[in-house]
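stuck on this:

***
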Amino acid sequence: MSAPARAVFIGYDQSEDKAYQVCRTSMLRHSASPLHVTPLRERALRHIGLYERPWEVRGKQKYDVRDGKPFSTDFAFTRFLVPALMQHEGWALFCDLDFLFTADLAGLFDHADDRYAALVVMHDHTPTETEKMGGKVQTTYLRKNWSSLVLWNCGHPSNKALTPQAVNTESGQWLHAFSWLDDAEIGGLPKTWNWLSGVSDKLPKDEVPKGIHYTLGGPWFLECQTVPYASLWLEEEAGRYAPGNGEWDHGKPTLPGFYFARDDHWTDGEPILVQVVGHNDGECMWIKGGAPEAITPGFRWQGPIKVPA
């Protein structure tokens, strides 16, 4: 019997879809065992009622209404929903979308240790710049970049405090500092899994980080074509269109569960979250208008994904 797929969540922002696609492809290409990769799409999480933080735009910058602070991505807060999405069971990896992986994530999951509620690379990073790529505000807070890659022990008792309500109401600083955990409940990961491009110490020429984090901007921005390891990202981006590397499955779901579905005509390419159920004739159906219906042809699919019961 094959091993169950490891759960991986990637922060998603429509404005940087290309970065997400390359991050995901790099994970899958290096993995010798199954990965279940799920993008954390803010609209989908709002649709199922897990996420409801209000925000507003001031100038070109998004501000969280709850704590009044600026934030730069759609997954600034949703990353902390991973334990709830996993129904507080098992292990799961979260990372920002601006990563490139050069090694099998099995090596990262090997660091799972039940003593810890979460394992992170414990950066000591205080940005000197005041603006991120794209003109967004660069923020400084305790444990900066710790939450950019987290190996979650979703079943750890202390993570029970990380409920959707907490994610929707607590301040960003409380969340990003892992304030619901004692220091002893946070484990460390090797820096190679979250190597900050342009920030972390340079490595020997014959050594490549296992997880390159383009935290100051990556090669999908024209201004960042020469950042450290830009060539590796560009090679991965060029090769991700090879057969078998596509994200979306054109075949209809064959198992019940929740899926993302997209279609250029019906959804304008925007993914929607739908529930698929079994049927007595063996053909899966989807729930539309509160009742099972035959699945409309032409959709592309991703899933199934876990959602809380």
